[in-house]
Amino acid sequence: MKHYCLGFVISDRQVLLIRKNSGRMKGKTNGLGGTIEPNETPKQAISREVEEESAIYIAPEEWSHVATVLGGGWKMEVFVTLVKILYSDDSWQSSDEGEVSFYGLSNLPQNMDLTAKWLLQMTYDDTVSWPLTIWTNDFSPEVHLRKPEYEGQTVYIGRQQSAADMLTIGLGLNNGDTLVVPDRLQSVIENALVRLNGPDILVVKESDRVGQLREMYPGGRI
Q: Phi, psi (5° rounding) for residue 123?
């Protein structure tokens, strides 16, 4: 299984990102990261990758593990670190991998990878217990799904899931959980859960939840 790492360096409500020069991400902006080597831990890997791509060294112990994304034949560890100062323009260097720069959290680039943007936004969600695990079929925010693991969780349903699948997932949750579904299916799933005497959960429209994430949770983690 291929093993990757992705990291977000955040300072003063700005995040360090890289615009990739090559590969499947060419032309897109993403967090820094790469492949985890067999002889290193995920935190050692993200520390190394960030230094290689930006010349900024952040010790492994300064990274917080916020998520593991599992796909077909690969997995990716996602990390966040908060730094006390905002690096000046001459404190980092771009590499052959791409051009690095800090961006405002409320003004992320239009060409940012959608999954990276979603993962970054999730770090502001105080209802999420870290680290979380995400199951996905591809690097796409439209097909992600976190399996139920504990009470009080928030489960995001990908748009490619059928209504029947969404209902099945909802029936398997616990009282007090939150299920986030596409807007057009919110009332359908909610009514079906009532008819089937399902658990007492909150069914939320995707646009409402994503809108909250984009507000960056003023009282949140960062």
A: -65, -10
